[in-house]
Amino acid sequence: MSVLLVTVGLLVVGAILVDAALTTLSLAGRAGPVTRRVSQGMWRLIRRLAGRGPRRHRWLRWSGTSVLMATFAAWVAGLWLGWSLVFSATPDAVLDQFGRPAGGWSRFYFTGFSIFTLGVGDYRPGTTGAQLATTGAVLTGLFLITLGITYLMQVVSAVVDKRTIAGHITALGPAAADIVRRGWADGQFAPMFTQHLTSLTPELVRLGERHLAFPDPRHRPDVGAVEPLSRALQQLLRTLDGSFIRTADDPVTAPPLEDLTRAGIPVTDAQAYAQAVDASRTHRCRLQGWCASDGWDETDPKLTLD
């Protein structure tokens, strides 16, 4: 029985440490299995509690914090449980200040102050194996807590980057047609508009890595600005697809050309536009899946702006 408890306890501790390392240190772009299940379960719970309608975002704004706290709590709970099993393997593994074997709750308490490196001292390891286990508990606790705090700070930084990009795009216009209309001036796209598009490219590449990475200028956008931006967005969606989002069955609605025509902006013919829209279906389905995974639908941006 004692060998079984020690084995199971060490397996739990090892699983938590591997999961934390995969989540925080791996460059493969995938969270560990425990983190993935906890975060997905927490997100589904928040989505269900939030319901539908524009007011749900008052709930969802706390979802990121809740998921992070749940993940960190799962790591601590797993580490605590694993070492508690190890210290429960033999009666004399933990002794009180009078040399008597500690009870079940006292062993749990001893495990807690060991992994949190408190060093209270009212209980002590009673065998050589327990002394080694205490050292291991202190080391793993210090490692996990330090790693967890560092990870939280990195996630906060990534969220700030994401919100910065969202603010940058929103400043250009509330919808795709509005962005194009605002960039068109005096029969061509303004140089400042092109510069804004160009500046978005490294931001999108950085966002993707964080989650792992006109022939006549009077008639068409500058290819030098739009093509890298488009490629950066496609790369971001490829990075997110599968690991982080699920591609939607229906794509994001393509913006209508009529709005641009009424603004006096030269556009391509309807057939060529329809072919381009059809060719980008997979890309737009990924966009829709990304929005849906974050709890947004196509009516939310208008509700937010209103």
How many strands appear in the DSSP assignment?
A: 4
Our measurement of the CA-to-CA distance between the termini, rounded to an integer number of angstroms, reads 64 Å
Main pleated-sheet profile: 2 strands, antiparallel
Rg over CA atoms = 27 Å
Described by its quaternary structure, the protein is single chain
| Averaged pLDDT | 76
Strand order of the largest sheet: 1-2
Count every helix, treating DSSP H or I runs of 4 or more residues as helices: 13
Name the beta content range. Answer: under 5%
What does this structure look like?
By secondary structure, the protein is mostly helical. It has helices spanning 2-24, 33-50, 56-60, 63-87, 104-115, 128-172, 176-183, 191-210, 223-240, 258-262, 270-279, 281-293, 300-305, and strands at 94-96, 123-125, 184-185, 188-189. It contains 13 helices and 4 strands. The strands form 2 sheets. Strands 1-2 form a two-stranded antiparallel sheet. The chain has a two-stranded antiparallel ribbon with strand order 3-4. Strand 3 (184-185) and strand 4 (188-189) form a beta hairpin. Helix 4 (63-87) packs antiparallel against helix 6, helix 8 (191-210) runs parallel beside helix 9 (223-240) and helix 9 packs across helix 12 (281-293). The longest helix has 45 residues, at 128-172. The termini are far apart. Mean pLDDT is 76; it is low at 213-226 and 302-306.
